[in-house]
């Protein structure tokens, strides 16, 4: 079982390298940090694969503000939060987000 993230830059049509993100788990009304990271040159965070996960609600908080400030742009959405439900610990979960300063979209894949 693993969780990985992939960030894409919708302005320049490329991988979004250097996006800070944190993985959180729902703890009964409060979110608890599980892991943090920054996307690599391919826009991926894959080192969360080593964590132990249980069924439940998780979310990834992408720091889009930090990323776009580095490009000289201002993001309307300072954070992009993708919340998802883990139903089976045996599956691999891949969460992808494509964002620009004024929009974002997500894609979720289980394998």
Automatic annotation (TrEMBL):
GO MF annotations in UniProt: hydroxyisourate hydrolase activity
Q: What is its EC number?
A: 3.5.2.17
Q: Has UniProt tagged this entry with the keyword Hydrolase?
A: yes
Supply the SMART domains for this chain. TR_THY
Gene Ontology BP annotations: purine nucleobase metabolic process
Q: Does the keyword Hydrolase apply?
A: yes
In terms of SUPFAM superfamilies, this protein maps to: Transthyretin (synonym: prealbumin) (SSF49472)
The Transthyretin/hydroxyisourate hydrolase domain covers 1-111
- InterPro entries found in the cross-reference section: Transthyretin/HIU_hydrolase, Transthyretin/HIU_hydrolase_d, Transthyretin/HIU_hydrolase_sf
The superkingdom of the source organism is: Bacteria
* Protein name per Swiss-Prot or TrEMBL: 5-hydroxyisourate hydrolase
Q: Which organism is it from?
A: Sphaerisporangium rubeum
């Amino acid at each position: 079982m693993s969780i990985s993230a992939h960030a894409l830059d919708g302005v320049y049509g490329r991988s979004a390298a250097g996006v800070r993100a944190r993985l959180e788990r729902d703890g009964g009304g409060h979110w608890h940090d599980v892991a943090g990271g920054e996307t690599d040159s391919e826009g991926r965070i894959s080192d969360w694969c080593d964590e132990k996960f249980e069924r439940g609600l998780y979310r990834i908080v992408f720091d889009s503000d930090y990323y776009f400030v580095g490009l000289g742009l201002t993001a309307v959405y300072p954070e992009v939060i993708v919340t998802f439900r883990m139903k089976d610990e045996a599956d691999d979960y891949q969460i992808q987000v494509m964002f620009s300063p004024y929009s974002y979209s997500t894609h979720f894949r289980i394998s």
